[in-house]
Design goal:
Shape: globular
Order of helices and strands: HHHHHHHHHHHH
Distance between the termini: 63 Å
Length: about 260
């Protein structure tokens, strides 16, 4: 039972460092919940970025089986993020008011990892770099992603390569703006969904992406519901309109052609 001189579980995981990072700024009991909820969410988002980055590399290398496993894992990550809202919703409005002022201008809106996930998946807005201008390392990380095609752009390129054997009819990627539905892309997906046997791998890829966005949409919905339950229609601490802003985000589609094509079948 002696671990003297050997690497322990706590050593490997850096448990002491992790557990020392919760530093409430008030005496409110629920501030610890609020901190841990958001810190663990950031850890899950770090893993999601790790998996999405590797999935893009696997797609480009033709390693589709590995890519499918990574995308399935990202969906499960967002399932975990969804479940976390259930814990945070145990905090009542009265609980939150005890420490909300200690947050200052800090807000989940400023999460650069969440922004990276959106950029990777194709929901891009160059204005979202501005909240990170004061941290050059983060700003450059996000700007570098905006300068390259998103993961979905790479999926679309693979779609045209497979279905048409050429990218001549493929719309150019929108690198610094959100991806909007394109009829040429929807038509290519329609061919896949009408001939599943011939395009089984692409069909499976499309469904993996729909699965991922399904969980992502639930995460957004749970977010807005939790915020409305806890603070109502107050403005967000970071200056956003709070619930109104989050409701607008519910309308964003990451892979619109994959949703629209269902109406054609």
């Amino acid at each position: 039972m002696s671990f003297e001189g050997a690497m322990s579980y706590g050593d490997y995981l850096g448990i002491d460092r992790i557990l020392s990072l919760q530093a409430p700024l008030s005496t409110a009991h629920d501030e610890m919940l609020f901190i841990i909820q958001h810190q663990t969410s950031e850890l899950w988002m770090k893993l999601a970025i790790h998996e999405l980055t590797a999935a893009r590399q696997a797609l480009r290398a033709g390693e589709t089986a590995a890519m499918f496993k990574m995308l399935a894992r990202v969906s499960r990550i967002f399932e975990q993020l969804n479940n976390a809202w259930d814990v945070l919703r145990t905090m009542t409005p009265a609980d939150y008011t005890h420490f909300r002022k200690t947050l200052g201008n800090s807000s989940g809106f400023q999460s650069y990892q969440y922004r990276m996930i959106e950029f990777l998946l194709g929901n891009r807005n160059v204005n979202m770099l501005r909240p990170h201008a004061h941290v050059p390392k983060v700003h450059d990380w996000l700007a570098t992603e905006l300068a390259r095609p998103s993961f979905y752009d790479d999926v679309v390129a693979h779609l045209f390569d497979t279905v048409h054997g050429t990218r001549k009819a493929m719309p150019a990627p929108n690198l610094d703006g959100p991806h909007l539905a394109q009829p040429e892309i929807q038509a290519a997906w329609a061919e896949v969904y009408r001939d599943v046997g011939r395009y089984w791998t692409l069909y499976e890829l499309g469904e993996k992406l729909v699965d991922l966005e399904d969980y992502f949409r639930r995460w957004r919905f749970n977010h807005v519901t939790t915020v409305e339950r806890v603070i109502g229609f107050k403005r967000g601490t970071g200056g956003t309109s709070g619930v109104q802003y989050l409701r607008r985000m519910l309308e964003v589609e990451l892979f619109p052609e994959l949703w629209n094509v269902r109406g054609e079948l």
